[in-house]
Amino acid sequence: MNVFTDEQVAVWKSQLEQEHIISKMLSVIKVFKDSLIFDCPFEFGNEAETFIWNRETETFKCWNCGAEGDIIKLYMMMRSIDYPQAVSELSKKTGVTLETKPETDTVQLIEANKYAADYYKKQLKKNTAALNYLLKRDIAEETKEVFSIGYAPDALEGLYRKMISEGFVTDVLERAGLIVKVKNGTNAGNYIDRFKNRIMIPIYNTRKEIIAFGGRTLSNDKKQAKYMNSPETPLFQKRKTLFACNEGLSSDSPIILTEGYFDVISLYQSGIRNSAATMGTALSVYQARLLNMISDNTIIAYDADNAGFKAVMDAGLIFRQTGISGKALKIEGAKYPDEFIEKFGADRFIKAINTAEDVSDYIFNGLKKKYRQANSKESQMCTFAELARFVSRHPSSLKRSAYLSGIDTALYQLWLTKQIKEA
């Protein structure tokens, strides 16, 4: 249900730089006097130039898939959000505030999460092991407050019983992802806390409302997941959310994109405030578009292991799809940004930021290194095939030529030499 009058929206839209907004979401292919041409964002691989923005009517239409509408509809479709949230987010770009009235269900879930966050913060002050863990990681008091860090006690029903006594209902707590219903065992049918014995970090939306939590276990039990997020809820879809997107990400400096909460927290504490995290999952198109609307300068700082490199490769593809010309950071001597800063300090990390590679170059050089370090002929050939696929599919002819030259000199001769020696 829309909560604005047509007159309010018309005034607001007249002040919105719509072409700037759409050009941040999509890559312009051609510019004409009366229209802009884009790749259709809803059809991957469609290069027929059928997605047209009419500069006079300020509407879009794809003549292939049939998608059409105004800037609000496009933003809704790109971000998979409803009308009020789209208008609320876009209104921040005009200087004219159009606030929404959230639906009752949404309000209840947000209130439940807010209460839970306050509960976790109070529990942190009472638990020595949790405080010692944060002390060991050099998390300062100010940082705890900024990120509202808390602790979920090692109890089955601690949060559940407390919130029921305060008037919250079971249905709301379950839909917020704070409790779960036990299916088997002696407690079957009962509700218990989802998070137990974990450092708790709230996850916010762009309106600074708590929509979910991330928890880091303090247990030594190897069977327990080290990190655990809230489940998908009416408020939270992980692929559409960036951790720390509420901290005022700016276009004035590069956005440092990491995998985990503690990477962002460590960067913040070190004075590097323009960072966000994908929360341990691969970068999605939704997250990339959100980044691109804030800044066209993103630097990936994923973990320095095989899984991290694979994630950079996947992100590089997403960057090309969404028109982001990003970079990637070499993290040498540590596995992830948090550990790097702990070992070498923030100044060295900033130097690494300043020497970050174009993400395509980073992937190409990483594959070359992987080839050289391969310990079998089969592994070499698999990597060489992977490298060939990457180069052949790159959209830039200049890059393809440069990479082919690099393959000829750096890899093919090395591979041929090995074949001769083994003959």
Could you describe the 3D structure shown?
- The mean pLDDT is 86.
- Strand 1 (28-31) and strand 2 (35-38) form a beta hairpin.
- Helix 13 crosses helix 14 and helix 15 packs parallel to helix 17.
- The protein has 423 residues and is of the alpha+beta class.
- It is globular.
- The strands form four sheets. Strands 1-2-3-4-5 form a five-stranded antiparallel sheet, covered by helices on one side.
- The protein starts with 5 loop residues before the first helix and ends with a helix.
- The chain has helices at 6-15, 18-25, 71-79, 83-91, 104-126, 128-136, 141-146, 158-165, 170-175, 261-269, 285-294, 306-322, 337-344, 346-354, 359-373, 377-392, 397-422; strands at 28-31, 35-38, 51-54, 59-62, 68-69, 150-152, 179-181, 191-193, 198-204, 210-217, 227-229, 255-258, 275-277, 298-300, 327-328, 357-358.
- It has four domains: 6-91, Zinc finger, CHC2-typedomain (DNA Primase, Chain A), CATH 3.90.580.10; 104-236, DNA primase, catalytic core, N-terminal domain (DNA primase DNAg catalytic core, N-terminal domain, Alpha-Beta Complex), CATH 3.90.980.10; 255-355, Dna Topoisomerase Vi A Subunit, Chain: A, domain 2 (3-Layer(aba) Sandwich), CATH 3.40.1360.10; 364-422.
- It has 17 helices and 16 strands.
